[in-house]
User: Fold this.
Amino acid sequence: KKKVQLWKKGSPYAASFSTSFTVKFDRDAERSVITVFGGGIAFAITPTIDVGKSGPESFGLFAIDDATGKPVAGSPDPRTVAVEIDNSRDTTYGWDPQIPHVGLDINSVDSVKSRFLWNGTRFIDRKIAAFIDYDAREQEISVRFQNVSTNGKPNKRKSKLFLTYSGLDLTKIVNEQSYVGFSMRVPETEDGVYDLYDWRFSTKWVLRKGIKI
Assistant:
């Protein structure tokens, strides 16, 4: 509910961050034959917690043009970076990859990079631990996942690297003080729910890339 300082104008430092959480996409017990249901969740850095005119197709982050996934023309700069775990696909959107996938969204839900996760049988009804790390010095973000068993515990050392992206300078994209948290698209039908566990978020100030003091 409070904004986080990620950079400061005139300062040679910026905040690296690490966040981890566990999410479970639960099917409705009475509809157990369904292997994939509509919906998706995104970890986001955003200037506001007001969904405004945004819809489910953009996880409630900002209003988009359905044809492109980019912000509606004339709307304010979203100043948003998000890591989406998407389990719903509208095939009319040519920019929406195969599901389930992880994607990095920069001011658009047409991800700058994405990767297929697991098939629905391995993904649904299981706890999936996510580990997201951003290095403000190297301007690189990485996303790892671990399929957690019923009795298992999240362990970054047991996770698998699924996505990396370089050249991500948050000082040029998000506000100095931004909200961090989750936004999501809920199923249109009662196919299931999300369970979110064990969220952690921390920052560390580092010297920005290319700056000497």
Observations:
- The chain has a mean pLDDT of 83.
- Helices lie at 120-123.
